[in-house]
Amino acid sequence: MRLPGGLRGRAVDTCAEGFQDNDGDGTCEPGCDMPGVCAVGYGCDDSTGVVQCVALPPGSITRFTWNDVGAISLYWNPPTTRWDAVRVVRKEGSPPSSPDDGDVVYEGRARTFVDYEAQPGLPYYYGAWAVANGLYSPQPAIVSVTADWLEISFDQPGTHTFVSSAAHPYLTVYAWGAGGGGGWSWQGYLLGGSGGGGGFSTATVYNPTPTSYRAVVGKAGLSGAPTPYDPDDLGQGGYGNCTGFSDPLADYRGGGGGQMSGLSYWPLANPTDISQWIVIAGGGGGGSPAGATAFSTPRRGGGGGGPAGQDGEGAGGGKGGANGIGGSGGADDLHGPGNPGASWANGGHGGASNARPVTGRTGFSRCGGGGGGGSAAPGLVEISGGGGGGGYARDADGIVNVTAAATGQQAAISDHPFYPSHLPGRGGGSDEDGNPGYVLVIESRCGPEWGGPPSCLDDIRPPEPLTDVAHDPNLNVVSWTPSASSDASGVVIRRSSAGYPQLPDDGELVVDLPATATSFQLPDDDAYYSIFVYDAVGNFSAPAHVN
């Protein structure tokens, strides 16, 4: 017989454990009972006397459900057996009968997919197969989807009203504030600063009763001029006016701040009652003008877009709005900082800062932007752009600050899937106006956190991730504060040598811990670690990375 060391002995009647002589030639060869003879995902056949490892199809997809808030979102759990990918096929009118029967809309390792190409009102069927070793699940998971949502978009500056639908009681609102205007250039070659990008805010409300709402789209900040204001506007962007010469025709002006966009109930007895607003997206601050000859007159930078936003950059930068008050203007060596906005809806007006003389160019000034506006550096040095606006959104407890704010010219969340091609909220460059704001309302049967219409009982809400993640390099222990979600069931740590695992099935599983765990000693190796929280139905949180 063949001994475990590879030595061959005489034929015997029986073989040692893990070996077999199924061909009856009197020689014991490794058999299927030997541990590790075939890799995971392969079956073993030793009936001929020689081990053959045969690829096995993966198990089936489970918990296949969906949601239709502006697009068809699919959710699933992969099989418990080995799997390499999940293929999702869409077919109109009847279920797909094979992995190639229809349009392949997704194939990968994720547990969710959003089909933005699907249209409401059409009878779609989706089939999901797990893939392993080139083989598919014997049976697909199938869902029938006839999506039903209403999409209302507002891209023209000003006010717009509409009445919600009783058949679609959930309103999900996305809003971008207007971009700030760019500052004027000086003699065509010294550029003004860019206007800040508009802020972004979103919220979902449930209201089964048809109700009137008002959407306000912020006006773009103008280059070198105040942003026009009407009483129905959602606040007034601060003005920009950096006067550097006694001749009015030679003014060099900062850009006006972009106005805010938002959605409120309608009518409003008091438009400045913030509790009546569901979403407010701050406008971008105006850019600073190019330096101009310094006189004693106040020099005004770009106005801000409150109610929340980032500070302007540089010595003359204005302050971002906060807690419902528009930001203050930039510092002015002669006159002090500009004033903040008069109310939660107004951006502050810009101030200015006179520069020290620069070699070859005396008397140039710095013009600060207010409420998120930018500032000009002395002389011919590069001028910084305006800061961006932030936003507020309504939740069950009222109005809370949403921290999505723009930086530079680009509108906040410009990679959002519903961000349109006309680029709302973008700040203007030197001598350019900003872009207006934008409000999108999607009315749906279910909210964003529940699926399976029409019952809307399937939980698709991911648990909150861990917080306060810290690593002790001396003990190689990672610690954290558990998830705030009451339905959190456990915590998994995964590692990879190629980079942080971004999906809950990336890399290699290190450990599966209870949801109440607060620390773990990592293996002594050089790898990237990510920690995910999961719930009982298979939703996973965003990863927390261990640095």
Characteristics:
547 residues, mainly beta, Immunoglobulin-like, 31% strand, 6-stranded antiparallel sheet, 0% helix, 35 strands, elongated, single chain, disordered N terminus
Task: Provide an overview of this structure.
This protein has 547 residues and is mostly beta strands. The two termini are 54 Å apart. The protein has a 6-stranded antiparallel β-sheet with strand order 14-17-19-20-24-25, with no helix packed on it. Strands 7, 8, 10, 11 and 12 form a 5-stranded antiparallel β-sheet that branches. Residues 1-10, 241-252, 292-308, 328-339 and 348-387 have low confidence and may be disordered. The protein is elongated, with a radius of gyration of 31 Å. The protein has strands spanning 19-20, 29-30, 42-45, 52-55, 62-67, 72-77, 85-92, 103-108, 112-115, 123-132, 135-136, 141-146, 149-154, 158-163, 170-176, 200-206, 212-217, 241-242, 261-265, 277-281, 299-300, 353-354, 365-366, 391-395, 398-402, 438-444, 450-451, 458-459, 467-472, 477-481, 488-496, 508-514, 519-521, 528-535, 544-546. It folds into 4 domains: 1-55, no CATH class; 62-146, Immunoglobulin-like; 149-444, no CATH class; 467-546, Immunoglobulin-like.
